[in-house]
Amino acid sequence: MAKIGFIGLGNMGAPMAANLAKAGHAVIGFDLSPAALEAARAKGVAIAATAAEAVADAEIVVTMLPSGKHVMAVTPELFAAAQPGTLFIDSSTIDVASARAFHDAAVAAGHASLDAPVSGGVGGAEAATLTFMCGGAAAAFATAEPILAAMGKKIVHCGEAGAGQAAKICNNMILGISMIGVCEAFVLAEKLGLSHQALYDVASTSSGQCWSLTTYCPVPGPVPASPANRDYRPGFSAALMLKDLKLSQEAAEQAGAPTALGAAATALYAAFEADGHAGKDFSGIIEWVRTRT
Ligand code: NAD
């Protein structure tokens, strides 16, 4: 069992740290938010007084922070406080350039590193069924894999530094585009007098089939567990979808990749957020699509 420091005990980090503790690891967490600390403590996570204290004795450090700028701000202190040779796993969703800078800084400080963003949301974090997409050296991945297995069920080594973040933003660009496509199809069906159930029954077993339709159906009824059945409470908020789409477009611009539909999805989620819907589930964009004529 490993000694693990866990930095960032928010909606995702707290249940992930709790699952590591449940698996028998010695976990010490830290967060800047007193409310997050209390919530994590209630889930059985030991709490440090500072970030430096959480990592001082750790063999492995997991960070689960909002964005690249948070990761870049806190890691110099963590790298300095940790024992040489500590493995740093960043599971935040951040831009590929920051992920690569995180790896370079970890190596320069004498540590090992892995970018390991996740898919599966808060439900997956609680149930320990997350998918981890990992980028970094084979040795770092080999050390991390059994640790990540306490928090997830699918762990993929995608390639070198930054490859995990690359996989994450490509996946979520598909998701943003496909959700808007499914929403537009339901709104067109409404205008054509076709019932939601009829479109679902056909498309879910035809070539239009996709996750946004069959797992996360944006209209109430056909998929009872989807957020559409609870007034679009997230789930996965529109704000987080927009964040990931912006990361995809930033990366596409830097890499010179043509992403016309990715750009269109980003613009539509930006408009949805600007109209006050950032906190809604991202499938709630169907209500907004309906109002465009
Ligand atoms: P969150 O805002 O709930 O948690 C982030 C936590 O980091 C907060 O509690 C904040 O206080 C803490 N924090 C910020 N700066 C810190 C610092 N310097 N030291 C210590 N703590 C600090 O966010 P979340 O929903 O847990 O998401 C975390 C990451 O996971 C994000 O990058 C997000 O994009 C990604 N993600 C989220 C979901 C989801 O469904 N929520 C799904 C997949 C990936």
Outline the structure in words:
There is one protein chain. The chain is of the alpha/beta class and 293 residues long. The chain is built from 13 helices and nine strands. A six-stranded parallel beta sheet has the order 3-2-1-4-5-6, sandwiched between helices. It has a three-stranded mixed beta sheet with strand order 7-8-9. The protein binds nicotinamide-adenine-dinucleotide (NAD). The site of nicotinamide-adenine-dinucleotide has 26 residues, from helix 4, helix 6 and helix 11. One of its GO terms (biological process) is L-valine catabolic process. Belongs to the HIBADH-related family. One of its GO terms (molecular function) is NADP binding. It catalyses: 3-hydroxy-2-methylpropanoate + NAD(+) = 2-methyl-3-oxopropanoate + NADH + H(+).
Shape: elongated
- In CATH terms, the superfamily of the largest domain is NAD(P)-binding Rossmann-like Domain
CATH class of the largest domain: Alpha Beta
- Name every ligand kind in the structure: nicotinamide-adenine-dinucleotide
SSE succession: EHEHEHEHEHEEHEHEHHHHHH
Main beta-sheet annotation: 6 strands, parallel
- Binned, the helix content reads 40-55%
- The second-level CATH architecture of the largest domain is 3-Layer(aba) Sandwich
Number of domains: 2
E-strand count:
9
**Poorly predicted parts:** none
Spatial sequence of strands, sheet with the most strands: 3-2-1-4-5-6
Counting helices, strands and paired strands, the structural category is: alpha/beta
Mean pLDDT across the residues is: 97
